[in-house]
Amino acid sequence: MALKLADYRTDVHNNWCPGCGDFGILSSIQMALSELQVNPSNVAVVSGIGCSAKTPHYINAYGVHTLHGRAIAFAEGIKLANPAIEVVAVSGDGDALGIGGNHTLHAGRRNIDMTFVVFDNFVYGLTKGQASPTLGLGVKTKGLAKPNIQQDINPVMLALTAGYTYVARGYAFDVKHLKDLIRKGIQHKGAAFIDVLQPCPTYNDLYTKEWYAGEDREDPDTHKPMPRVYKLEETAYDPLVKTGEPDEVTAKVGQAAAKSMEWGDRIPTGVFYQNPFVPSFEERVEKTRVSVYRELPPAKLRISEDDGTSAAPMEPLLDQFKAV
Ligand code: SF4
To answer: Over 90: is that where the pLDDT of 25 sits?
Structure first.
């Protein structure tokens, strides 16, 4: 029987602020899972700490609400223990790029086949609006006593240089487009990174829904607002690596990096880069370490005998470390 969107929802009370962009991201993840008809019992949604970290409570799937900055670390563990599970990690911009920055960086170069969604609102919403790592130098939101004294991290650029093989940016209030980006990220065989512009109406009075919609400026011809957010797929931009040749990869990464610098009057969303030619970490393990890894991953191994003693054959393992 086909799964319905309602099958991915829970009845847990949602306490995000009214108007928060988190609602759009939550719906997009649920819609993507529904569209792919992934059984909830085959999905794990993992979060760290922050407003975004409540997401697993609202999705009918396995959910793990972990420690600050550790969503990726737990998600990697789940995926490596059982590669058959569809793993979606969710993190705020502070959680992903501040506290958990190192995990975010190294997940890229491993190219583990999972999807990482970053709720990017430029502030630490849960703790009353301090500057997050994505807030620009000299910018002052209403939660700050003085303008930000630190330079910002560009999440798309960071994901590109870290080695993620699917790098995209969505907008929380364009749910259909974001759903498509998340669905493609889940389908991609490798590490997918999706930066999501997410208005926080409670603590970020600059990057609001109205600002993204360009309501503060008027098109001189139509006299309508001039939206800042636009879609890359509506331009001639092509993110896909088609041959995997080094020159092509270099050109596509360079193109995506240049595009990631666009901000202000025009803000690109969509897929910046996709390279299907890089082997996933799971494939590397299978090819170079454990040939039966996918049939017998750690989660399916018997860990103890009936009498409680370890079922792991230690002798062959210890033999590998013997000095000859
Ligand atoms: Fe959303 Fe901001 Fe409220 Fe957190 S503080 S729930 S990010 S509006």
So the answer is: yes
